[in-house]
Write a structure and sequence with these properties.
The protein is of the alpha/beta class. It folds into 2 domains: 110 residues, Arc Repressor Mutant, subunit A (Orthogonal Bundle); 157 residues, Rossmann fold (3-Layer(aba) Sandwich). The chain is 58% helix and 9% strand. The chain contains 15 helices and 5 strands. Strand 3, helix 11 and strand 4 form a beta-alpha-beta unit. It is globular. It starts with a helix and ends with a helix. It holds the Pfam family HTH_6. InterPro entries: Homeodomain-like_sf, HTH_RpiR, RpiR-like, RpiR-like_SIS, SIS_dom, SIS_dom_sf, WH-like_DNA-bd_sf. This is MurR/RpiR family transcriptional regulator.
Length: 288
Amino acid sequence: MNILEKIMQHDSAFSKSERKVAEVILNNPQSAIHSSIATLAKLSGVSEPTVNRFCRRIDTKGYPDFKLHLAQCLANGTPYVNRHVDENDGTEEYTKKIFESTMASLEVARQSVDINAINRAVDLLTQAHKISFFGLGASASVAHDALNKFFRFNVPVVYFEDVLMQRMSCMNCAEGDVVVLISHTGRTKSLVEIAQIARRNDATVVGITSKYSPLAEECNLVLSLEVPEDTDMYMPMASRIAQLTLIDILATGFTLRRGNKFRENLKRVKDTLRGSRFEKRDSDMNKN
């Protein structure tokens, strides 16, 4: 049952105010996709909390999640490209759709994240003797971004995109090492095998992956993000951005956990980079 069918089915359960929201959406669902919560509330003649109650009534987690379900309902998408974009969309239309669907996906991911798991992951990373970041395909770029962030933190960091190098690296793991494996689906056989190798060699394995996936079952700790994206059919986009955001969260937690003295070291790293860049000019800053 899609979201529009669910709205029609729940009609009798809606309050008078919620029914106003339903009518506006059913009359012009395409417009609702591109409306902010404030705009939809105004069009419906209700308050923003009423719109949120309406969204929860139909089993979505809030307005961003509702918009995501509505977009998925209306768009057939372009296979192997993007589920929110149609083949005949113009530049302005597909640009707007991608931004809006990505922002909605990030909000859904934010609401699904387990804060306790993030706190535990930060503990493991700050205490690690060595940290490895591995991913394949689209997730390899996320692992590489993690390397760029963590290598300046004065702890040994390993990154390999090649599967054989990943396997050999995990063969040399030891107790106190942390291996972070990144996979949206958690069904990549090579990464599952790498998790098994790392654990056999006493490393702690953290998975940034789907809950209950084969990879998740082999991890000591799972950081799961709910991103409704079928990467078997479409190019991975929102899931990768959510993963990059989670890496940024872990890096931020790492620096905060290490304290002021550690941040002084980061300042020195930044200072060494200044000579590699041209200074900003006042004329550049004042350009419109």
